[in-house]
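Researcher: Structure prediction, please.
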Amino acid sequence: MPPDGPGNPARLIIERLHLDEQQQKQFDVMREAHHSKMMDIQQDSRKLHDELFELLKADNADTAQSNALIQQIQRLEAEKEHVTFDHFAQLRAILRPDQKAAFDGFIKDLLRQMGGPPHGR
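Model: Predicted structure follows.
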């Protein structure tokens, strides 16, 4: 996942936080690990969604089974939030104090750009 191209969240982070070379290397490792985890979760989520909608082929879909699948999907959604939160906490941990101030000021905008939940306040 090269951090090239306009509007790329990785490029935006590097530029806005003024990451030095060492920080960029650390960030690249973190970013790859985050991406890998998110892809695994997405794959599991797709499988569960497929199973869920397969239930619609029956005239009387099994409510207990559909509820169980929906709960598993919800757990994966929660896991995505944890993985993303942890990723940004790790990023913040490698920043200098001046960079942390910049991070704190733009994290909501970054998450909004990345398609995260809308943020009020």
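Model: Residues 9-43+71-113 form one domain.
Researcher: Thanks, that helps.
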